[in-house]
Design brief:
mainly beta; 4-stranded antiparallel sheet; 47% strand; globular
Length: 196
């Protein structure tokens, strides 16, 4: 077991903002200077669209998420969402939110639910769309910090409370008033949601 990886091992940059493991047991790392895949033997680097750094003085960052059908997505807080294409072995621009959202576009969290809906958490609200559709505004009265799926609904953490939405995008409840929700963890096979 290795206890660390660095640029000496092929990592694009030593600051890692996000790590995921895919269904083939590859480890994916989002760094300040690119995306890396580690297959257990070697590291491969990927760029997203341009050769820009993924974190700079303006605070631009890149994160990763995996959909229920095992599609890998990379997204940055300026609203560009990329999907990994296994056939071409590269990330391709999937959705540029700047083409649909004109104000308050700082993407904080992207979650793809079991129905393949994209739940898009911004500093200016919550948007949702099916894969390939135009994002629809669900709630403009929140700064989204975290999104997770519950058995029958969605839990949305914000800077001021926890919101529960139906999977057809209707607000069901606002809980934990005056609470900055930073993380959520639904416990499997239990009706318990841990809030951090």
């Amino acid at each position: 077991i290795r206890d660390s990886y660095s640029t000496e091992d092929g990592l694009s940059q030593n600051t890692v903002m996000n790590i995921l493991q895919d269904h083939k047991d590859n480890l994916w790392f989002a760094t300040w200077d690119g995306i890396n895949r580690f297959n257990g033997r070697s590291m491969k680097s990927y760029k997203l669209g341009t050769n820009q750094r993924f974190s700079d003085a303006s605070g631009s960052t890149t994160m990763l998420t995996i959909s229920p059908n095992n599609s890998l997505y990379a997204y940055n807080n300026v609203g560009r969402i990329y999907r990994y294409n296994l056939l071409t072995d590269q990330f391709e621009l999937y959705l540029d939110l700047a083409e649909h959202i004109y104000m308050g576009l700082v993407l904080h969290y992207l979650f793809i639910d079991s129905q393949e809906q994209l739940w898009i958490g911004l500093n200016s609200g919550l948007y949702c769309c099916l894969l390939g559709e135009t994002p629809q505004l669900i709630d403009s009265d929140c700064h989204v910090t975290y999104i997770t799926e519950l058995p029958q609904s969605m839990a949305i953490g914000t800077t001021c409370d926890l919101r529960i939405y139906s999977k057809d995008r209707n607000l069901l409840q606002k809980l934990c008033p005056d609470t900055y929700v930073q993380s959520l963890l639904p416990l499997p096979n239990k009706e318990i949601l841990l809030i951090g």
